[in-house]
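Following the same procedure, sequence and fold were stored together, as reproduced here:

>
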Amino acid sequence: MTDMRLQNLTAYACPEGNRIRLSWVNPDPAAFPGVSVVRRADTYPVSLHDGMLVAQGTDLDSGMNDAGETLYRVTDDTLQGGHHYYYTLFPYSSDPAVFVFDNRNRCAAMATSPFGFSGLMFDQLPRIYHRYDTQGAGDNPAVPESLRDAGRLRRFLELPGLILDQFYSHAGAALDLHNPYRMDGSLLPLLAQWIGWQIDFRLEIDAQRNEVRGAPHLYKTVGLIPTVEATVKRLTNWESRTKEFVHNIFLSNNPEKLNLWAMELDETEQWQQQNEPFSLHFAHEGRPAAATDSDGLLHLFYHTRRKDGWHIRQKIFSPATGWAAAEPLTDGATIDRHPAAALADTILWLFWGSFDEQNGAWSIRCRRFNGAQWSDPELFGDGSVQRRAPAATTDSSGGLWLFWREKQGAGWRLRSNRHDGSGWQLDPPPFFPDDGGLPPRVETEPFSLCLSQGGTERIVLFWSQLEAGATPGARRMTIAWRVKDSVDPHTVSDWGPIRLRPKSSPDMNESDPVCRENPDGTLSVFFSSDENGSWSIRQSRLDPATGSWSEAEQVSRSAYTERYPLVLMVNGRTTLLYRSNRNLFYNSDVFKATETIDLRYAGSVAATAGNIAKNALRGKFADFQAYTHDAGTNGVMTDRNWYSRQTLGIYLTPDTEDPGLILRNQKLLRGVLRRFLPIQTRYVFIIEPAVYRETVYTYDFPPASPSRFIGEQFSDILTTVNPEIYSGPADTYGDTIPEWRWLRARSSAYPEGGSVDFSAPPVSTRFRTWHVGVTEGEE
């Protein structure tokens, strides 16, 4: 832009008050004959339309100065006394007008008020002076019209009176010297110095006012992440994210905290991950349980740790009000875990395992819900042996089946019993029968379900057990299942053989199975697997009649631990609950631009080379892997040493790729950030890829250059079937996007790529894009 600086630019308050006069010299009136004067009351205008236009033209000259240069003057009147006004002058050429903006073409002044000190002094004189002061000024144009009838003495007193008016105006304005929004902008550095704030002179005055006004609040929040990010934004205008690496330090007593998350099956049979956790009532292991009561309300049970220990809680879903707040169902000094629930007739039964730390013994306790209230907790069995890990289901006649693990010698064996509505039918309850002469190894929580398809009721039981892996000496979790061909509790010989789910690799773990029965008699089995290095939820279909399994489909895809699935129907939609240590992101209600990552639930687990997704996050903002404490080299820590309790990572997103500018801004930040961090905290800068905003369409950005708009094409089609019947007019349209080309993707499953074929079910748009009415635009 052409450099055009006006000379001798001044602004001063007129003695008569409520006016400010500006004067300047135009060094090049031939090239820039005109000037526009724009005013604002809080800061300097930065454009021709950023304020009130005071004057504009080529005829603002008012004579010559002492140096013989043409002097230009403009008087801005009807101003409010005691207020500061800021002016920017925009020289321009003529035909067509080209305005020039130069930061040096600025001036400011405070308008004074006419307090009438001259009249007040005249009124204080003895009346004899009034009597003889009668000679007016007549028609003298040099005398203001309001004073032409006043005598010489009165007119003389106008000279000191106007100065006293200005003195009084400035004295009154001094009362606002503490107010950053009222004081003169040139005094802001002094006010900032009083509170130890280093003002940024690159900012406009209104931004400087906001800085000084917000500085005391920032000092109060020393050490808070929003304060750090606000400082980075103020100094560099870059976006930033701040991460405390203390949550990435490995601790031996910090297991993963698995919150409850949910997925829903949409209309296209795709699982949709919910953005927010279902519940922050974490646990380290164990799946929830669910059952409906006699009124059709869905009850969800799970264990979690609260201040007084591990207890069972429930949430109830009503179609009218949704999920209610969680409420505790157990209390006391015992550790209560692994709930199991089922509806038998009109009674909702709840069982759970309870561990007494003083005696070191497990027991199973239960409560019953009759639709109005819960019964008191009671002990299941006689308490002479240890029992744990209950699983419950009901058959069509209302019988309640309960399976549990019971201590036998040095190990645990599975037992079962059936409640017919009046009492438990078997005494003693039978053990899970041997399979091929060997006792079953039920090594995890079992899951039971009564099957009703096929005309004959059966009971299927799932669990996990350790089997030999491909690596010598290694043992891996494997899903096992078994079917009872009747619901007769007195018969145990109708239990079929124990079968294992085939795995693609013997070195992978599969655990936590649950299932639901499909109308065709097959079972949809959900389980967790670490096939890809991290635990994720998978789904497979099992045909109990043939024992065949379909290929497992990965339901959840992330680097986080995802285990203990539970499938249930919520308001007519298939919902999958599971536990995960997924990070949480919070947006501050006070600091709107601040996003905080919560790594408290990630836990400390050993790194796995096969977990590619998790290892790929190393060094990134979302990394939740735990590392040993980094003490530096010989106790000296540099920017390469991140993982320590006192280190703060500041992820900077510059708007440039200039390494010199990036280093300069880092140096600028180092000199300031220390004021807003605790004394023991150190920080490192991590540069993220630069972000550039590209304006594709300019409907909302008129000044953008070059302008781009969506082109539209249309045509009318009139089709005549016969002389009497018309199909009617129809419109077709197409949009052209500039510099846009089709994005097509291909994979081994879809080698043809291109657009989606909606005539061939099932319709899948997972690996390709699809757009209607859009054509490729010009370069």
Summary: The chain has eight helices and 43 strands.
